[in-house]
Amino acid sequence: MPELLPRRRLDQPRASGRRFIAFDPDTFGRLSERLARFLGTGKYLFWQTLIVLVWIALNLGAATLRWDPYPFILLNLAFSTQAAYAAPLILLAQNRQDDRDRVSLEEDRNRAAQTKADTEYLARELAALRLAIGEVATRDYLRGELDKLREDLNTRPRKPKPNRQAPEPVTGT
Fold first, then answer.
1. Residues 12/6, Cβ–Cβ less than 8 Å
2. Neighbouring residues of 38: CB distance < 8 A, sequence distance ≥ 6
């Protein structure tokens, strides 16, 4: 059986050389986040409400400008189109925010683990210092020992001190 050409093999993915439009996913994500943030503002709601009111007023009041009569099918189509694009953009912005939150949470966990390790280390060092200080003679202990020694010296009977005068020189006469 003859071997198929590499471009016709079904067990390997096709090369992606057919892209006509190249775009940066991060740029598109940033743009979608900006748009999603704008869609959630009061400014957007104000302008959208104003446009809808003008649309309805012109279509109901002006006899010559009725491009969308009463059921306002064109207005409904515009809202449907807006919703069809807004929902995925908002979801994309939420996914990007989730990714940032996940990274931030991981950094917080690492920082908390490092802080815990540092705290445990310092607690061990403090305990070791406490043990070491327990074995060191303190000022009060030394003062007490010196007082006991002074009392012992004061209570012993004193022996006369030997006269330590220099011997007289011997002269040869």
1. yes
2. 44
Q: Pick from 37, 36, 39, 57: which is nearest to 48 by CA?
A: 39
User: Structure pTM?
Assistant: 0.48
Instruction: Extract the tokens encoding 92.
Output: 């994309």
For the chain, give the DSSP string: -PPPPGGG-SSSPPP----SS---HHHHHHHHHHHHHHHTSHHHHHHHHHHHHHHHHHHHH-STT-SS-TT-HHHHHHHHHHHHHHHHHHHHHHHHHHHHHHHHHHHHHHHHHHHHHHHHHHHHHHHHHHHHHHHSPPHHHHHHHHHHHHHHHHHSPPPPPPP-PPPPPP---
Is the distance from CB of 72 to CB of 78 less than 8 angstroms? Answer: no
- C-beta separation of 87 from 93 below 8 A: no
Helices 25-39, 42-61: axis angle to 10 degrees equals 70
- How many Cα atoms are found within 13 Å in the side-chain-facing hemisphere of 6? 1
What does the pLDDT look like over 38-78, one tens digit per residue?
Answer: 887 889 889 988 988 888 888 887 767 777 777 888 888 88
